[in-house]
Model the fold of this input.
Amino acid sequence: MSIFRPPTDDFVTQAPTTRDSVLGVLSREERLRRRLAQFYRPTPRGRNVYWLLDGTFTENDPADPADIRTVFYGGHDNVVTAEEEAALIAAGYGSYIT
Done:
């Protein structure tokens, strides 16, 4: 069996959010946290990969959950069978399989 690690995006920052920031009123502590957050590096965010019943793969949430055959969760090590591995390689995800 192989391990599939779905692709990640490196654009998620650790900037704190609160209800006050939505309203446009920031407390002194919130302003200080935001100033500190500007020095954080972006962290990876895993993308879910959905294998649909029609044999295709997508990274967008399907409109009907009944169409999903398997979900490979982003940010996790997914153990895949030989059949899943072959389908993932055919779909272009071969570089994410170890």
Observations:
- The chain has a mean pLDDT of 86.
- Strands lie at 2-4, 8-12, 43-46, 49-52, 57-58, 68-72, 78-80.
- Residues 32 and 64 are 43 Å apart (CA to CA).
